[in-house]
Amino acid sequence: MFSYFYHEKIRKTKLIMQALFSNIYVVRKKADGSVINQQRVPVSYASKSKFIDRIENHGDLHEGGMVAMKLPRIAVEMTGMNRRGQHMVPKTNTFLSRTAAGASKKFYATIPYLLTFQVIIASKTEDDMHQILEQILPYFAPAYTATIKPFSDYPDIKEDLPIALMSVSQEDNYEGQLETRSSYYYYLDFEIHTDFYGPISDSKLIKKAIVDFTEIDDSDGTLIERITVTPDPVDADSDTGSYITTYIIPGEGDSI
């Protein structure tokens, strides 16, 4: 019943979310305003539980644990998918696109979905956290639109992905003894409107068009004129060649 196809739409959306926050920096300064150092904030795809567990519980090298993560750091996780039923279009809707080789392909109506993501920001100091937030929040008022090419074989097809920031929450980890590693966490929840495409089918070029004209109030359908359009030469595509138009006016009594 089903045929195989894979457009990598979910994977591309995850990569977009990671790339969106890949150019954020924190700058440390002295009291006189001179810069001590500048650090780019790394971004990874990780679940909230594993991300925080790695930061909080794997910092002791003497116990054979993993090397602690260097903060600040950002993690991205997809948290849900929901169909946007109110944005559905008729399944019979199609559009055509042509490959570089000149072949026409038919694309059927897309299925609209809402993808939810959570971006987790962890930092050791409040100032680092404030710098990161102020480089993110102004771009979402209330949404940021990213443009992608959903198909590598059809570069002319582009799609806009509205990315909306829905909520911001925070958590300060001060529990435990004084020597326990403490961190600041902020959680940013996003929604992305996207569309999923079904299989792509071949579409043949129309080589002949026939239009018949009849009287509107003629119940017998008496033919007044028939117009036939064909390409010249016959194997011409839409970018080359010309068209031959033939007009036929039948005699009295001819009908369709």
How many angstroms does the end-to-end distance come to? 40 Å
How many domain regions?
2
Query: How many E strands?
Result: 14
Helix count equals: 3
Using the coordinates above, name the CATH class of the largest domain.
Alpha Beta
Architecture of the largest domain in CATH?
A: 2-Layer Sandwich
Q: Identify the overall geometry.
A: elongated
Structural class: mainly beta
Residue-averaged pLDDT: 79
Task: Write down the Rg.
Answer: 30 Å
According to CATH, the homologous superfamily of the largest domain is Myoviridae tail sheath stabiliser
Largest sheet: 6 strands, mixed
Short structural description:
The chain is mainly β. The protein has helices at residues 9-20, 48-57, 126-136; strands spanning 25-29, 35-40, 43-45, 73-83, 94-98, 104-108, 111-123, 143-148, 159-173, 183-196, 201-202, 209-214, 223-232, 242-248.
Structural write-up:
Helices cover 13% and strands 42% of the residues. With 256 residues, the chain is mainly beta. The protein folds into two domains: 194 residues, STM4215-like (2-Layer Sandwich), CATH 3.30.2000; 40 residues, no CATH class. The protein has a six-stranded mixed β-sheet with strand order 3-4-7-10-9-8. Strands 5-6-11 form a three-stranded antiparallel β-sheet, with no helix packed on it. The chain starts with 8 loop residues before the first helix and ends in an 8-residue tail after the last strand.
